[in-house]
Give the backbone structure.
Amino acid sequence: MTKKFDVVMFSMSDWNDWNKRGVVNRNYHILNQLLKNDKIGKILHVDFMPYTKKRAIRSYFENQILNSGHKIIKRDPASIFKKVSEKLYTYSTIDSIFSEEKVYNKLNKIIDNLKLKNIVLWSYFPMFTGYFDRIKSEIKIFDTVDNWIEHNNFQSYKERLRKNYNIIDKKADVIFTVSEDLVKLFPTNKNVHWIPNGVDVNFFQNTRYKILDTKKIPHPIIGYVGIIQNRIDMDLIEYLAKNNPDKSVVLIGTIWPDADIKKIKNIKNIYLLGHKSYQELPSYIHQFDIAIIPHKINKFTKSMNPLKLYEYLACGKPIVTTPIAGIENFKDLISIASNEEEFNDKIQEALQNNNKKMIIKRSESVKKYSWESRFEKMFNFIKNYEK
């Protein structure tokens, strides 16, 4: 019989990102799988640890000033420790911009207070790595979501991240990666496993909400969901809009400062609908006639495995994408284009060739890629691990 584990998770997100803003990522889905698993005892979720004053101010305001309503167990001027449920506890701190050591001193007291045992240390956060040495654990996990060295928001921290990925390579017992390309980040670790993203199939196939801001948008709709940032090829978006005046190009997602939207924001058939919560996404995707992934091809996008690929397929939508990582298993179900003209041609073909049989085939194709199946693979590596 498999023994029970407690988990200390160092997150790439704040609890508020998921529960107030409706932002969802791999970290969120794996946490939810841990919560459902009867072999997992208590979970101590450590919010994104600030490394800049700006992030610390945001964290302090949201967690100390605007309290979520969960039961506060302990707080001090820099930190707050809360109980969400009998299984889940959260810890948020700004100590990390002053002293990483202080963070671990406080966390170890909380771990003692919760009487955690058989601890799995599970991290998504490469900006800090001191937890490998300072948090006592039975097994140390690092789940690698994208290559942060190549991320536009972390250009000032490249050397720090290179050093930290090297530490992770040496100190993690098991490493998971979201894409095959990320395996290269850990050349000496013998326990690196490529486990792509997954999807909540039932949620995307069965959920419907009444949505108002697409009612007046003419069909056919060429749609995209995701953060609007530097990774999107805005020249491609502009080309598609101008060459398809009879179609609507709908972009759903928060617009980041690095996104060059000047060239597209005044084009009449482009609709920037802004952030939508995870709970709303299925309804929007079901409005699309074509779903697109117009990512630039560079070192960062090669490290990705877009969640939207699985979500589009779960909704049965025809997909046109640039040749990004993670599409190998779906080549017969999606259209891949290497330049603007080809991308546009593939959209026309996909619109003409879409039918009920293909819709069913696409939606059936992702059932084996559920988050339950992804987590089961991860957990098998954990429970069978031997030092």
